[in-house]
Amino acid sequence: MSKINTVLGPISPEQLGVTAMHEHIGFGLPGCDLDPQWWTPRHQMLEVTIEKLSRFREHGGQTMVDCTGIGTGRDIPYWQVISRATGVNIVACTGFVAGDSALPYFRNKSIEYLADLFYHEITVGVEGTNVKAGAVKVGVSRGGLSELDERIYRAAARAARATGVPILTHLSVEADRQMDLFEMEGLSLDRVVIGHSDMGMGADIERDYRIAERGAYVGYDTVGYDTEKGTPEQPAPYWSRPREERLDHVMTFFEKGYEKRAIISADANCWPLGWKSVNHSVNELFEVFIPDLKEHGLDDRIIELLLVETPAKLLTMQDPQPNLVKAAKQAVTQG
């Protein structure tokens, strides 16, 4: 039976609905959520998060993929409370945001060890729970793909092949090498989103065309990080860009006929852990970005494709390959 793993159990593709493919309930680097400078009573975090996701639900949003990886704020019991309170399906990820944010414990682990870890979280459960991850998160370290990043990418590809879940990446830096690594492990690129391709840092429309031509998906998923929002007290983050510039970039991609090879999302934190953010919410998809797209001529059919059809295609677990399932089960810890 076709299914998508969520924090409240598996659902059918028909239950997925309007989906934001790259979001965060709370993300921060390892340990920052314990820093007294940033500590906030959980009830306040919960109140703000429920307000934002209730608004998301009012806009018609039904599902969000939380791309917070291992050790950077993932909190399954907390997410279950939020999902029940708001009615929003939450898909959890295994994997790491990038090698440079992985806990030191994991940094010398082999591809086999990491693949087995990801496989376990997809098929058995995350962090001692019976909640199964529905996607794998990987990413590029500051400065470019590191040797650890490449191990993580190859492990993610093995786990994705063995379970049928998709892979979502952090950063489109060295996109061609990212795709090469997945293909080295035999993963079809139609199970991959190369994320943050709309960031001001390193934006490259020709690269986006290559991603689409090779069969992967382009993640236009930092919507709302606009330079115009910055203030002297809270500057816009370095990955921001002017709102119109992002819009022109995305529309150019669609006008080339690649609308079937993209997803849109906001990469917003309901409550940032340990860092200050400009005002930003998943709801900017509905309140700003989609109206902008429509004003520039994108019709409702394409919006439905971006928010419903393509996410359902990606998140629905594909038939695993039995030989890879066996290999993943037999993987042993190295070091």
Automatic annotation (TrEMBL):
<feature type="modified residue" description="N6-carboxylysine">
    <location>
        <position position="137"/>
    </location>
</feature>
<dbReference type="Pfam" id="PF02126">
    <property type="entry name" value="PTE"/>
</dbReference>
<dbReference type="InterPro" id="IPR001559">
    <property type="entry name" value="Phosphotriesterase"/>
</dbReference>
<dbReference type="InterPro" id="IPR032466">
    <property type="entry name" value="Metal_Hydrolase"/>
</dbReference>
<keyword id="KW-0378">Hydrolase</keyword>
<comment type="similarity">
    <text>Belongs to the metallo-dependent hydrolases superfamily. Phosphotriesterase family.</text>
</comment>
<protein>
    <submittedName>
        <fullName>Phosphotriesterase</fullName>
    </submittedName>
</protein>
<keyword id="KW-0479">Metal-binding</keyword>
